[in-house]
Amino acid sequence: MTESAAIEPEPERGAAIGSTVLITWPDYPDDSSGHARRLMAADFRLRRAPKLGARSPEKLMELVRHCTAAIVSTDPFTAEVLAAAPHLGIISRVGVGTDSIDLAAAAARGISVTAAKGSNESAVAEHTIGLMLAALRKTVAQDTWLRAGEWRRTGDALGRDLGGKTVGLVGLGTTGMSVARLLSGFAVTVIGYDPVVTRADGVTVVSLPELLRTADVISLHCPLTPATANLIDAKAIAAMRRGMVLVNTARGGVVDEAALAEALRNGQVAAAGLDVFHDEPPQASALLALPDRTVLTPHIAGLTLESVEAMVDHATQAVLDWAAGRVPTGLVTRSSRKRLSTAYPHDQEHDREEKINER
After folding, report:
1. Which tens digit of pLDDT belongs to each residue from 162-195?
2. pLDDT surpassing 70 at residue 248
3. Count of other CB atoms within 10 angstroms of residue 324
4. Are the C-beta atoms of 11 and 350 separated by less than 8 Å?
5. 332 near 113, Cβ under 8 Å?
């Protein structure tokens, strides 16, 4: 995607830093909100640069180079970006995933990273169940057929029950276990795999090969790490029960999308419900050409009015706690940097709140 905003001019030397917080979360409330007022009352300047699409590390370097704090979406905080932000003390995620941040580099530079753990797991779990049901019952395809004037109620238009199935959960952390609890009302058998979990309430913990082999529905709830990248590849899909349903509300990189698309075309996988993709937005994904076999949503599983409010509140409070010398909640890496009060270059243009959109 092209970037519509000009690069900000190089600041001139002058007044002392009041502390600037970069805000890239697109729906962060305006200055009249309680969240913004709390930051401004703590002498933070707000620099808004909402992430509305792909953002390059180079652009992020420009945005963050004079900032002491950042309240962020999934911006690419690479080691190079962090090196270009010498005063940055905290990166506060509006969300729970941190795979877009080089945590080792942040820790090495003494930059705190926080995530809003516990703020949206229920939302993700509910969306996961929705995707399971929609994929099994062909809800999206039936909606399309009906709007096209087709009244299809027999044959290949029929879906399947969730009740009576074996559901396999890959990842038994907070979100995975939230899904397990919701599934308890569906008369299903719940099995799960997690490399660090041996027992879980309501879940029979099994090996990954056994889960792939026996589950009718597989739902992914693991982080994206080198160990889980393309975890669901052609080999894993071939080991699954023919006609199974795959749901992914974790991270797109966990699934080999080309392999999944081929499995959907040949019937090895009957349907897939996906909220996350390798590239977001997924403009070139082969999955887009399979509307009758997929239910696709735009990485929105964790975003409801309620969960966004909770995540924004958490992210804001984390910055305020860091600025006050307190340990923020949801800490992933801990800062050794304190809020700066020394002279630092800026000009009036930099001092204004900026709205730099990327499209």
Report:
1. 999 999 999 999 999 999 999 999 999 999 999 9
2. yes
3. 10
4. yes
5. yes
For residue 298, the one-letter residue type is P
**Residue carrying structure tokens 């887009």:** 288
- Residues belonging to the active site: 251, 280, 299
Structural domains for the chain: 20-119+304-351 (3.40.50.720), 121-296 (3.40.50.720)
Distances (CA, A) of 195 to 22, 122, 131, 132, 263: 36, 23, 25, 24, 26
Strand stretches in the chain, DSSP E? 20-23, 45-48, 69-72, 90-93, 112-114, 166-170, 189-193, 204-205, 217-220, 244-248, 269-274, 294-296, 331-333
Q: Would you state the pLDDT for residue 18?
A: 52
Model pLDDT for residues 292-319, shown as the tens digit of each residue: 999 999 999 999 999 999 999 999 999 9
Beta strands in 206-268 (DSSP E): 217-220, 244-248
